[in-house]
Specification:
409 residues, mainly beta, 5 helices, 7% helix, Peptidase_S1_PA, Peptidase_S1_PA_chymotrypsin, Trypsin-like peptidase domain-containing protein, signal
């Protein structure tokens, strides 16, 4: 099978209770607002605008909508709702706010809320993403409903905010439908929610905190993580490789279940991509990395960081993988097939010039996950699926190329 067909774009069909766990919010929660939802009148954007990057798990679709909010009392709130959606990400084509006015994009229960004023200042308001077109994208809201509200003391009926598009996240069945399957779960899927290992494997659990879910340009999904002591992140080149894609993407830290096997993840902490620093040369079967930074770095520093191994690993080395396969809340691959059975190990430390191989379980969305050894150093960057030889790019070779750009510790 060609490497291009072996990239991680798997959608596992048999998922646990918290495998997707995307905090779906009930439609009645939005009915407290005396406003008709806009989304039922939306249309799917042209196919050319949909997310379709090869090797990346597609997790949503772009919808177009015509919605304007005014500062008049009866025009201050608009509901963007797509029943069953796993997230909603709203685009403002125009924002005409006076000093002191602001707009919020929130979940119906208010637990997740993003605030934007006329200055779009990340230091005083919320983060946001851009796509090179007029306007900006609010950060995504978990669930199927986003409540957009204008906060103003004015009574003018002029339009102050215009919504023209939104991304809506696929549910579990749709992710399976829109992604081809490569066998990357080898035999029995032994992955479990990260929190399941909080007591039994505290070090593995703690190192996983530096790993985030990567929402790419509104509709794609990979895994990403902080590397070194400064504001630097790593993922795969095949996940994104341009400044525009970095600026259009979200990194979601602490997106994991609160209890083992429970469908109860919180929204976590979301930041946007800032600066693209370096992209590997060669194809996706080679080193396949992208190094970049994030906005609002202070918001994610508490989640810790990971360090690259600077020497080659060896066959038989114990290993584990934290990641967001299928776009799910964070799971850990520690055991091969059975809990407390054989642990994951490196099957071939020199599978080829660039890669090591293993049969530790992964799936679509795990692209970009760190592969760590028992000393909790990153020995590979996961990027290719195909049991029994799932593959990760050798971390020491990546280190040799980016050493001057990171503080590896």
């Amino acid at each position: 099978m060609k490497h291009a067909m072996r990239r991680l774009r798997t959608a596992a069909v048999a998922l646990g209770a918290c495998t997707l766990g995307l905090s779906l919010l009930s439609v009645p929660a939005a009915e407290a607002y005396a406003v008709q939802p806009l989304a039922p009148h939306s249309e799917r954007a042209p196919e050319s605008d949909q997310f379709s990057a090869e090797g990346v798990t597609t997790v949503g679709e772009l919808r177009t909508v015509d919605g304007a909010l005014s500062s008049a009392r009866d025009g201050r709130t608009q509901i963007i709702q797509h029943p069953g959606a796993s997230y909603v990400k709203v685009h403002f084509s125009a924002l005409r706010l006076a000093h002191g006015d602001y707009v919020t994009v929130a979940s119906p229960d208010g637990r997740e809320s993003h605030r934007y004023d006329r200055y779009l200042n990340r230091a005083t308001g919320s983060d946001y993403t851009t796509d090179g077109q007029p306007g900006f994208w609010a950060m995504s809201v978990e669930g199927d409903t986003a409540v957009v509200t204008v906060h103003s003391s004015r009574s003018s009926r002029g339009n102050v905010a215009t919504i023209d598009r939104f991304w809506r996240g696929y549910d579990r069945a749709e992710i399976a439908q829109h992604n081809f399957s490569t066998q990357s779960v080898c035999s029995t899927d032994a992955r479990r929610d990260a929190v399941c290992y909080q007591s039994s494997h505290p070090n593995e659990y703690a190192r996983g905190n530096a790993v985030a879910r990567l929402l790419i340009s509104g509709g794609g999904m990979c895994t990403t993580w902080r590397v070194g002591n400064t504001n630097r992140m790593l993922t795969n080149k095949h996940c994104f490789s341009t400044q525009s894609a970095v600026s259009g993407s979200e990194m979601q830290f602490n997106y994991q279940c609160a209890t083992c096997g429970g469908a109860n993840p919180g929204a976590g902490t979301k930041v946007s991509g800032a600066t693209l620093y370096k992209v590997s040369s060669g194809g996706s079967n080679q080193l396949d990395y992208t190094l970049y930074s994030v906005n609002n770095f202070a918001n994610i520093q508490s989640f810790g960081t990971l360090y690259l191994a600077t020497t080659a690993t060896t066959t038989g080395t114990r290993m584990y993988i934290p990641g967001h396969g299928d776009g799910s809340p964070k799971r850990l691959s520690i055991f091969e097939d059975t809990q407390n059975g054989a642990t994951c190990t490196v099957k071939n430390a020199n599978y080829n010039t660039w890669n090591i191989s293993y049969s530790c379980d992964t799936s679509g969305g795990n692209s970009g996950s760190p592969v760590l050894n028992a000393s909790h150093r990153v020995i590979a960057l996961h990027h290719l699926g195909g049991c029994p030889s799932n593959q990760g790019a050798k971390a020491h070779l990546i280190y040799n190329e980016i050493a001057s750009l990171i503080a590896n510790g």
